[in-house]
């Protein structure tokens, strides 16, 4: 129980005890002026009645205020839930869009990689052909030099053989 409620119940209990202890004074008739006429009535009972009426009015006011606050809170909760669902849908759409973008970028990268790989392989094939041609050309030149050296050696050997018998 809240302290406020407990405090109000204590005050109501004190008023009830006070009225019970002074019930004879509450019931004593008194002349009351209503402005245009005078009336004989017990002032204590009238005051207790007014207190009960005022308490009932405040109780009705508090109940209606509490009800309106509850309805407003429920309305806000529904709006909050709707906004949360809308935000979740927007987030899901952003994730879907991001996934599509990433898939596109990955495909583009894969295409670029395949293109680069093809270019590198073509370049390696060209370099291999150039290297083979260079090796073949070097082999031909070497063969030509060796053939020329053999010819010279043969001439030298024939020249020494011709000069030896003398």
Automatic annotation (TrEMBL):
Which keywords annotate this record? Membrane, Transmembrane, Transmembrane helix
- Transmembrane segment boundaries: 43-65
Q: Which domain of life is it from?
A: Bacteria
Question: What is the protein name stated in its UniProt record?
Answer: LapA family protein
- Organism whose genome encodes this protein: Thiovibrio frasassiensis
Its taxonomic path starts at: Bacteria, Pseudomonadati, Thermodesulfobacteriota, Desulfobulbia, Desulfobulbales
